[in-house]
Amino acid sequence: MLITGASRGIGAATARLAAQQGYALCLNYHQRADAANAVLEQVRGLGVTAIAVQADVADETQVLHMFEAIDREFGRLDVLVNNAGMLEQQMRLEQMDAARWTRVLGANVIGSFLCAREAIKRMSTRHGGRGGAIVNLSSVAARLGAPGEYIDYAAAKGAIDSMTLGLAKEVASEGIRVNAVRPGVIHTDIHAAGGEPDRVERVKASVPMGRGGQAEEIAEAILWLASEQASYTSGALLDVAGGR
Ligand code: NAP
């Protein structure tokens, strides 16, 4: 299983749960080698084979090198979790510039497309593979729009939803299932990048369950979609958002 953005938050929680279930793991990270190595030690402590690979998922050359490392170390790929994602400072759309949109769409959209492409080349029965599963991280922002905060990020997640729907149909007959998890507001570092580390506390009043979610609660949904238990599920957009 390749988990992009596995050094922190939802990706790290997914790595720990996957290790408990016995998956051999490639843990991707962008900048935080310290955090990635801590997760690597945790999952190896659970007895599984694992490597950590630095790559900016928005960079095609770096993504190709990451998949070459997977080919070398494991010789096959069964599951891709397209989890790496980011957002920038909260602001209105008319305050944003094109360079920001390039960064936000690059990391969230192009990154997922690049990893999906390389995964399909290895998984698809059309290319001699054994099939597999792709789980994309979208967000409830895709249907809420994130007004006043980050419409660009919400739109990027809307693109992930459309990619999930189209790709699920494109590769369904080739042994590959493609689904998305749409988390609500989850306790991770991502909100600090928007300039509001305590965002979960403010937003939780709008969550029917009255609380933010934990990364482990998202990991459970990701691991289910990746598993044989979800063998007839493809093209699903699974909201894990406390009823929001
Ligand atoms: P997080 O705690 O900020 O962690 C982000 C992870 O992504 C880190 O491992 C980071 O690596 C990695 N990353 C960021 N940009 C990258 C890039 N260009 N290339 C490779 N890796 C990159 O975020 P999170 O809250 O766990 O979010 C995980 C996913 O869930 C994202 O797709 C996010 O949009 C989605 N989501 C989160 C929430 C929420 O409330 N937290 C809600 C809905 C959806 P480094 O550690 O090296 O920087």
TrEMBL record:
Query: Which Pfam families does the UniProt record give?
Result: adh_short_C2
GO terms (molecular function) for this protein are: oxidoreductase activity
- Supply the SUPFAM superfamilies for this chain: NAD(P)-binding Rossmann-fold domains (SSF51735)
- Which InterPro entries does the entry link to? NAD(P)-bd_dom_sf, Sc_DH/Rdtase_CS, SDR_fam
Keywords carried by this UniProt record? Oxidoreductase
Q: Which family does it belong to?
A: Belongs to the short-chain dehydrogenases/reductases (SDR) family.
Q: Protein name, please?
A: Probable short-chain dehydrogenase
